[in-house]
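Teaching assistant's notes for section 4

Start the section by putting this record on the projector. Ask students to predict, before seeing the second block, whether M20/M25/M40 family metallo-hydrolase will look compact or extended. Collect guesses on the board.
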Amino acid sequence: MSEAFAGVRRIEEIRAVADSGGISAGVEIDRLHAAFADIPLRPLGFPVHAYIEPHIEQHVLLEEAGKTIGIVTGIQGKKTFEIEISGEKGHAGTLAMSDRRDAVAAFARIAAMLHDKVGGDDPDVKFTIGRVEVYPNAPSVVPHAVRFRVDLRHPDNDALERGGRLIRSICEDLAKPCRAKVTTLVSASSNDFDERLRAMIAAAAEHYGFPAMPVLSYAGHDARQMARLCRSAMIFIPCRDGISHDESEWIEPEHAAAGAQVLCAVIAELAAGA
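Reveal the predicted structure now:
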């Protein structure tokens, strides 16, 4: 929703997004509003003095360093692509190998090359194929289509752009005799956070005696969008083994309290006119 607030994406576009079960974001937003009907709705895009976002790190850097507070320097860039490979159906027992336009065979070639040439480009790149759909997904039918998603991340925007161009060229070249269509779904540049706010977070952590260190966010957050509108920053606390978005996600209660103390101190300073 921060994209809608910041004017990056229209709310109608966000509401139309649906999950694999066909449930749209709009349906869930309306359900959430109905559950808290006494909370008034506010228009999007009102002026904001500053934005501070607390979050778990979703990484192991703080945990391994024995630090309680992460002073987030920025967020690495991200691109998401949807690739559709179009081939032709055929009977697995009768269609000669030389005559096949097998979409899975094309996907296998593409996936291996992407992992090698894009995922192995440099130590800072993060490359993931996280979703693959095969059609008709039957054991005795040569598949005519594959749709998959690529998640590409890098802290350097030039490297991110080079990776994106390489993904497109590899998919189009190696799909033959099938065809590949590459669609960009997300293109978010790497961004830095406000230096003054970062200094305030560091000072608050020092005041309370919480060990702190600067860290880059390797996951995306609302603060990326809010940084377009106002001074923005983030406060990280450790999470066990870097696990997030999972049932085993865990933070220590004292870390949560420390993060809250630092957040409150910075908010109080901002409210006083900082």
